[in-house]
Amino acid sequence: MSQRAALWGAGVLLGTLVAVLFLALPRFSGEAKLEQKPPAPTYRLVWLPCRDTGDVLPDVDCARLLTSGDTFELDVAVLRYTESDKQASPLVYLQGGPGLRLEMDKAALVSWGHFRDYAGLKRDLILINRRGTGPRAPWQCPAYESLGRELLEADLTLAQEWAHGRKALDDCLAELAGFNPQALGTQHSVQDIKALVSLLGLDAWHLLGVSYGTRLGLALADAPGLQSIVLDSVYPPAEGGVAVWPQTLAGALEQFAAACASESSCAEQWHSRFPDLALDKDSFLSQLYDLLDELARMPMRVDVRVEGLPKRVLVNDHRFLAAVFAASYHHRRWSALVAALADGRARERKAVAALMDTFVQQALSDSVNTLTFLAVDCRDNPVGQEAAYNRQVARYPELAAYTQTLWRDQICHQWPAAEPPVLPDLSHSRARVMLLSGEFDPITPPQWSASLQRVYPQIHRSEFPATGHHILGARPCALAQLEDFISARRERIASCAE
């Protein structure tokens, strides 16, 4: 559950398998009507039986939040806390990944109940799926979403994979009626969440956001009744997006040796596999770039699982690089990355297959709606200037083959201009704010939350050493402090080293 909540980057940004194509799309052929100001939204909340729950979950209520004209149907679940020490103000959870749906079938709701109880929450937990996600999303491209499965065995260059993606999406958009990227984005999701809180009649509530969910949380900081905000892996407005992708990718790779050295199993793996090499940035990058050169000339074939069945995947340079970036998110996968690097250099398949297997499960997940991901990303993040992007590419020449065309190829150039979310003045927010960051987070680096705290010193911040993305999923010591912070029994959530 925590891994799925944190997933919003990896291959999505690099461009590998189906995710490689997220940033290289055909021209959108929308009419001028997209520029018209939409009418004020209206909402309805309809209570319904929970899907596939039977009598197993008597303390869960399910609903759908319907937006104007019922264009979007957002699944909602309220997990009721029924013990005598219940606190009246519930916690609203906002998952990561624009375009990533929050699972709400029976197994998922049971898991969310375990999460609430493991975290020691003494209050209801409210879940909501954002517009454009889930099985009732109005705009979907099934043929495109399944493309990655078809490409797994093919020996394709990055440019060839993009060409397949452009063709699949061109065909989809030609047949897709009414697709409007301006109907998606952070500002719409903020309106949706405020509407839900109002329709539920909540006078007081709390918010927990992870990764992209933290951007929503920041935009909601002045919402009526909001008492506390916990933001895990902070993604502020004006940060991220393809405009800074060369720097993001290079930064993740350059800091990996330090991350590995901070985690005992990874450091042991390195010294076992590379006994004659120091564990430092230069040694790691040298081994990685040499392997990428080898895989570009001589790809490897390994077996992975796709929907529980064996599937052969061709591992070339850009696919391996995507798997490396995905593994850098979570400290539990750092040692597997080192093992795959060593096996790849030795032309051994075992550890390479294990790394690719985990990555493929992420890259081919059916939980992400590509069109929604793109629309939100384009609405939130200005494209920047090509000259500035090219200067970043030039700073990291070893990665230029994987980054140099992404700025020109992104669909944001063809869609309406970005409307970045507005950050409320946090100094005027009545909510207590807690920022959590991982020392080696590759996609929402800790300097983003540090910059926020410098502007608003009244908010609290903790940086967790030897940790990547999604603190509450990686460090139980942080999760154990959540209820105490929400209940104001604790001023801040302390890092595990404190």
UniProtKB/TrEMBL annotation:
* Entry keyword set: Hydrolase
Transmembrane intervals: none
Write down a Pfam family by its short name.
Answer: Abhydrolase_4
Q: Which residues form the Peptidase S33 tripeptidyl aminopeptidase-like C-terminal domain?
A: 404-486
Record has Hydrolase as a keyword? yes
User: Which top-rank group of organisms is this from?
Assistant: Bacteria
The molecular function GO annotations come to: hydrolase activity
Gene3D superfamilies reported in the protein's UniProt record: alpha/beta hydrolase
In the UniProt record, does the keyword Protein transport occur? no
InterPro entries per the record?
A: AB_hydrolase_fold (IPR029058), Pept_S33_TAP-like_C (IPR013595)
Quote the protein name from its UniProt record.
Alpha/beta fold hydrolase
Origin species:
Gilvimarinus algae
